[in-house]
Design a protein that fits this description.
CATH superfamily of the largest domain: Fumarase/aspartase (Central domain)
InterPro entries: Arg_succ_lyase_C (IPR029419), Argininosuccinate_lyase (IPR009049), Fumarase/histidase_N (IPR024083), Fumarate_lyase_CS (IPR020557), Fumarate_lyase_fam (IPR000362), Fumarate_lyase_N (IPR022761), L-Aspartase-like (IPR008948)
Shape: elongated
Organism: Parendozoicomonas callyspongiae
GO molecular function: argininosuccinate lyase activity
Protein name: Argininosuccinate lyase
CATH architecture of the largest domain: Up-down Bundle
Bound molecules: arginine
CATH topology of the largest domain: Fumarase C, Chain A, domain 2
Structural class: mainly alpha
Strand order of the largest sheet: 1-2
Pathway: Amino-acid biosynthesis; L-arginine biosynthesis; L-arginine from L-ornithine and carbamoyl phosphate: step 3/3
Number of helices: 19
Radius of gyration: 31 Å
Length: 443
């Protein structure tokens, strides 16, 4: 028999493969709570507009509430023939309450319905992600306070550059997350408009009150143009873009954690519970969590490109293509949440190996800039000081001595240094001297 939601025009039932091919119920059922939330708001609006009676509204609201509970108890029977979450719920509602169920879809289309559902769903997920970002930021702050005096080398080109503290490095990570947080807040703000009322594409002839619907659902306003309302998926792309940056940041942190746990660096220790062993090499403790987070960045970047490509060239207004927005969006949300959770759980338990960090800062001539600055303060122009210190470094490389290991006499071969140079070249003084806003010695 032809489809019960649109059978009128059709002379045969949809092909069985086509039914499965076009259905989205397998993945869009996770929108059920927000679909019901949107339907309840729509029904209340229809009642306010005198389109539904008090009684019809009551039975719709009760019916939807029961359906939600059926789904949560695992008793709801999903039907591929009913294609998606919207029609599954509507059909069940009619089965339960009869004729009033058939009135719910008055002045509405699945096009504005699905656009609303995804926004409601994503808004909740963003709130969760914001909370996880805050938890990770707090973990970094806490650890950075503990590691505020831990000297380590700062790198450029992965070559030892200047001494910094581990705390300063951790606060650099936190800055990335502060920007991620504000990008998510932005995305949430821009998407917080209600498409309901746009109906299929042109709006509806019923005396609807779009402000009332928007208000009930916590949206800031109704969307401004009906065609745009049902065809816009910018918010999903913006969300995936902000997520790709979060993952990019987590993968940069991951890369450093992986390097730092290697025997060659040996700067930190990750708790055993965040690592795994090898099935063949008994000595192994592998940093799997950061490695996997680094790897997951690939799929999130992929989803961003997938969604951009999905939307490219789509004519207005709704097209079935848009059903393809869900899986990449859902997987992005799941991945970002899992990765943030892993990091927020792990970061507070990172243990620094401060002796190794300090030893690494002592090799590689990390204080060379400070020696040049010292000479400048004694009156030498910077370019000349740079040259002088370069020669001292070359000498140090020859005889295997760091600047801090040279005697005053040795240093004096290159420039006019005095007793106070030794103090000026201590790792602590080098860090503390950079005590301006944003400097390594600020903490
Ligand atoms: N399942 C569809 C989607 O995800 C819902 C909207 C379908 N609308 C339509 N006219 N076929 O986009």
């Amino acid at each position: 028999k032809a489809n019960q939601q649109w059978g009128g025009r059709f002379s045969e039932a949809v092909d069985e493969f086509v039914a499965r091919f076009t259905a989205s119920i397998d993945f869009d059922k996770r929108l059920y709570r927000h679909d019901i939330q949107g339907s309840m708001a729509h029904a209340r609006m229809l009642h306010k507009a005198d389109i539904l009676t008090e009684e019809e509204l009551g039975s719709i609201l009760n019916g939807l509430q029961d359906i939600k509970e059926e789904i949560e108890r695992g008793e709801f029977e999903w039907s591929v023939a009913l294609e998606d979450i919207h029609m599954n719920i509507e059909a069940r509602l009619t089965e339960k309450i009869g004729i009033a169920g058939k009135k719910l879809h008055t002045g509405r289309s699945r096009n504005d319905q699905v656009a609303t559902d995804i926004r409601l769903w994503l808004r909740d997920e963003i709130d969760h992600i914001l909370a996880e970002l805050e938890r990770l930021q707090d973990g970094l702050t806490e650890l950075s306070v503990k590691e505020n005096k831990t000297i380590m080398p700062g790198f450029t080109h992965l070559q030892v550059a200047q001494p910094i503290t581990f705390g300063h490095h951790l606060r650099a990570w936190r800055e990335m997350l502060v920007r991620d947080h504000s990008r998510m807040v932005d995305c949430r703000k821009r998407m917080n408009q209600c498409p309901l009322g746009a109906a299929a594409l042109a709006g509806t002839t019923y005396p609807i009150d779009r402000n009332y619907t928007a208000e009930q659902l916590g949206f800031d306003a109704p969307t401004a143009n009906s065609l745009d309302s049902v065809s816009d998926r910018d918010f999903a792309i913006e969300f995936c873009s902000a997520s790709a940056l979060i993952l990019t940041h987590l993968s940069r942190m991951s890369e450093e954690l992986v390097l730092w746990t290697s025997q060659q660096f040996d700067f930190i220790e990750l708790p055993d519970r965040f690592c795994t062993g090898s099935s063949i090499m008994p000595q192994k403790k592998n940093p799997d969590v950061p490695e996997l987070v680094r790897g997951k960045t690939g799929r999130v970047n992929g989803h961003l490109i997938g969604l951009l490509t999905l939307m490219k060239s789509q004519p207005l207004a709704y097209n079935k293509d848009n059903q393809e927005d869900k899986e990449p969006l859902f997987d992005t949300v799941d991945t970002v949440k899992d990765c943030l959770r892993a990091f927020a759980d792990m970061v507070p338990h990172i243990k620094s190996k401060s002796e190794n960090m300090r030893a690494a800062a002592k090799t590689g001539f990390a204080t060379a800039t400070d020696l040049a600055d010292y000479l400048v303060k004694k009156g030498l122009p910077f370019r000349e000081a740079h040259e002088v210190v370069g020669k001292a470094v070359a000498y140090g490389l020859d005889c295997g001595k760091d600047l801090s290991e040279m005697t005053i006499e040795e240093l004096q071969q290159f420039g006019a240094v005095e007793e106070d140079v030794l103090e000026a070249l201590s790792l602590e003084s080098c860090v503390e001297a950079r005590n301006h806003i944003g400097g390594a010695g600020e903490g």
